# Entry
Amino acid sequence: MRAVVLLSGGLDSYTAAAIAKDQRFALCALTIDYGQRHAREVEAARAIGRALGVERHLEVAIDLRAFGGSSLTSNAPVPHGRNIDAAGIPSTYVPARNTIFLSLALGWAETLDARDIVIGVNALDYSGYPDCRPEFIAAFERVADLGTRAGVEGGRFRIHTPLIAMSKAEIIRHGNALGLDYGLTHSCYDPRPDGRPCGTCDSCVLRAKGFREAGIADPVLMG
# Structure
C-alpha cells in the first residue's frame, strides 16, 4: 500500500509517518514550503524523509505570505510566553493551511493511484486550530470522494490521523518506542538566527511540556 504523508519536519508529522510505515505503507512524503518564517523545518523534513526511507519526497513551494493573516506568514510578532491553554484561536493559525495542504496531498495521491493520506494533526493537547479537529478531517474525506475522478469512479480516500487523540507526551512515548530520533525534528515557530529554538513560543512550550511529561530528554536541547 502506498500513502502520501504530509511531512513538515516537526515531531508530530515524523511520528505519524513512522506509524504509517510501521503499518507497512510505502511512504511518499510531501513537504510544503509556504513562506513560513520557521523555514528551518523544511531542512528537518528532508532529514526525516531520509531517516524513514521514503519512496519519494516531493517539495512544493506555495507562498502564503501573499495572503498573510498569520504571525507565521507576515511581519506580525509570534507570541512568546502565552498561556497555551487560553481560549481562542492563536495568531499562529495560518488561514486554511490544512485545507490547502490536504488538497495538494490529495492531488498527488490521485496521480499516484494512492487512496491513503497521512497527516499529524492533534486535537487533544492543543486544539486552538480549527483545521485539526476530527470533524474537519471527516468533512475533507467526503470532499475527496466527491471532488475527484477516483472518488466518482468508486475509489474511497482515507485521511489517517493517528495522533489526533494523543497528548504530546503520548506522541513522544510512541515515537520513542518506534526508535525515532527526535533530534532530527524542528518545532519552533520563531527560531534564533542560528536555527536554535527560542524556547518560549507556543510550539516550544508545548514540546517542552510533552517531553517533560513523557519523562524523556529532548535531544534537540541536548545537542
Summary: The two ends are 36 Å apart (CA to CA). The mean pLDDT is 94. The chain has one domain: 2-222.
